[in-house]
Amino acid sequence: MAFTLIVFIVVVAAVLALAQIVAGVIGLGAIVGAVAAGALAASSVHVVMEWEKAVVMRFGRFNRVAGPGIVFTWPIVEFYTVRIDQRVAVTYFGAEETLTADLVPVNVDAVVFWMVFSPKKAACEVEDYGSAVSWMAQATLRKAIGRASLAEVACRRDQLDAELKDALEEKLDGWGIDVIDVEVRDIVVPRELQASMAAAAVATRERDARMILAEAEADISDMLKDASANYEGDPEAMRLRTMHLAYESVRASGGTLVIPSAFSEGFTNPDAADALAKAAKKG
C-alpha cells in the first residue's frame, strides 16, 4: 500500500507540474487529469514478494504468472487476481469420533505439509485452495480410518501416513498443490474402551508367556532324554558328570561341600557309578 501511494503521489505531482509549465496555471481539469493518471499508474505497478507469484488476467482470461519483484500491468485491460504464496504451508486437520472397521469411535489428529507448485491451477481450478486442502485432508483421513481396524490404526501409523499422502497427492495434483508429508499426531480411544483394551493386551501377553514356557519345557525334556541316552552304558561319563557337579557346587558355595556316602562312591566304585546312572535315568 505504501508503494502504491507513493506511485500515485509522484504521478499526480508530475502531471500538475507539467500542466503548470504548459498552461501556466493549474486548473480543475489539470487536477482531475492528474488524479486519474495517478490512479491508473498506481493500479499498473505492483510489488510481488520473493515467495509469491502474481496471476495476471487479461480481459478475464489467464495471461501469465508474474513475479517476484515489480510487476507491470496494462491499466483497465489487465489485473492480477491473487498472489500465490509458494512457501511450505502446514495445515492441521482431524477426524472426531470416526468409526473404524471394527466399529470403534476414535479421534485422530494429523498435520499435512504442502506447497503450491502451479500458481495457475491454484488460482483457476479452485476457489480457496487453503481451505480445500484442509477439507480434503479431513475427508481422506475419515475414509482411511473407516477401512482399518483399531489395532491397525494404532499400530501402523507409518502405513496410515503413507496412505494419506498418496491419496492427497492424487486429489490435489489437479489443483497445482504438492503434498510433502502427512503426519498423524495423536490417536485417542474413548475412556470406556481403554480398560477393556488393556485387559485384552494383558491376556495376550500372558498367553504368549505361557506358550514360550511350554516350548522351553519341551526343549529341556528333549535335551534331558538325549543326555540320559548318552550316559546309559557309559559309567565313566557318569562319574565325570558327578565330579563336575560336585566341583560346581563347591565353587558356588565357596567352601567345603558335604555329600552323602552313596554319592561319593560314584567317584571310585564303578558298580556304584552304574547304579547311580540307572537311578538318575529312572529319576
TrEMBL record:
- Annotated ranges, domain Band: 43-201
Its domain of life reads: Bacteria
UniProt keywords (A-Z) are: Membrane, Transmembrane, Transmembrane helix
For this protein, the record's Gene3D superfamilies field holds: 6.10.250.2090, Band 7 domain (3.30.479.30)
Q: Which GO terms describe its cellular component?
A: plasma membrane; side of membrane
Q: Which residues cross the membrane?
A: 29-49
Q: Which family is annotated?
A: Belongs to the band 7/mec-2 family.
**Name by which UniProt lists this protein:** Band 7 domain-containing protein
**Which taxonomic lineage does the organism of this UniProt entry have?**
Bacteria, Bacillati, Actinomycetota, Coriobacteriia, Eggerthellales
